[in-house]
Amino acid sequence: MNKRTVRWDLVYIGFMGLLAVCVASLAVKTAVSRQYSVDWWWVVVFLVLSILADLNPVVRLGFGREQVEFTVSLALTFSVACIWNPVMAISIVAAETVFADLVTRKEIEKIVFNAFLYVIAIGGASISYNSIGDSTASYLGAMDLKALLVAGGYYVASDTLLLSGLFAVLSHKSFGSVLVGLLRDSWLNIAALLPLGMAIAALFRLNPWAVLFLIPTFFLLYVSLRREQALRSQTQTVLEKLVDVLESKSPDTAEHSKRVRGWVVAICNELGMESAQEDTVVQAAVLHDLGKVGLDEDLLRKPGLSEEEFHQIMEHSAVSASFLEGLTLFQGGRDIVLHHHERYDGKGYPDHLVGEDIPLGARIIAVADSFDAMVGVRAYRAKSLTVTEALKILDEERGAQFDPQLVTIFTRIVRACVAHGDMSNFPAAVQVGATDGAGMAVGVEG
Prior knowledge:
By secondary structure, this protein is mostly helical. It folds into two domains: 8-229, Arp2/3 complex 21 kDa subunit ARPC3, CATH 1.10.1760.20; 250-419, Hypothetical protein af1432. Helix content is 66%, strand content 2%. It has helices spanning 8-32, 40-54, 73-83, 86-103, 108-132, 142-171, 175-206, 215-249, 251-271, 275-287, 297-301, 307-314, 316-323, 331-338, 360-375, 387-396, 404-419; strands spanning 59-63, 66-70. A hairpin with a 2-residue loop joins strand 1 and strand 2 (66-70). The longest helix has 35 residues, at 215-249. It is elongated. The protein starts with 7 loop residues before the first helix and ends in a 27-residue tail after the last helix.
């Protein structure tokens, strides 16, 4: 009898559905208990503006294979929660998001999830605002401001927590790491758009037509956020071009870097690293030896090096980092590249950093880089080490050259690959078992 695989994403969406039903029920009770007037002209205006905003996302954040989109509609949807009663607010925003998702041909699971998410976030925010606020209170008076802040806090918390939960399920990463990553990458959008939503709600109470004067502000925000996204895309393009340079100038170094990348991805996954941080570390792994393209090939293949020649090779990490200097959005990756030859005991280079003062990405690359250098074929030595011998050296250097925790994780990864016969990330001629022993100095250049 075949076991059926549980679709945890569907289970999570089902859980969201239950929450949405509870919020909707509470919204009906809140709406029934109070008298509200509805100006359908403005309902249509807000509906149209929200749809237009949703059809033009400005920021896309990736979590595994999935993405979350941010648009300037956040300000509009939050204002809707504060302008109308909870039932009307839910209806407007749910209709808007379903229509936009259908136009962009999203999958049915995403459409349902987004609808449930807005029912919970907008419905709860509207209930909060209408329960605390007073429509007869003064413009942005103490009571009104308190209601806005509570509703805003609920909206951000519910939206962020529920999205993080879904992406944690989809990417198989820890909820905490996904939440931190989502907040880190979206806080600027929230900080810009949520106050604007509060301003829209406040202006609407004074004079609905005054809201239209904020349309230029929406446009400027949209352009600014799009420019930031374009800068990110341009940075990625430059990094890809640098990889092309590495592959064309030094194919052996490029192949080594690709194998290091594979190990780094595996380590990041074991650590449950958030996707944006993982992308930076992985990109740094591909480019960590970029500085070697300017070195003489004969020098890289030379069996014995003078002190001056060795120092010349040691400078490759600083040269690699210098190539990345002007990429503002990749400064974290540049620091990783610069420090990937630091040692955990502080005896590395270029800055003799110690322990966790070394960027985590650099510590990860150091383990993967050294392992591949030990098991790989090099022109400057008679033979390479076996996998067993290389892992033994890594273990002996725990706490000295390498981060102890990362050595443990990496050893487990390598042994699992060997056990399953997955040798795709090993050099072609690698041997697994012990031989007669080929000595190698620890700290070999990768």
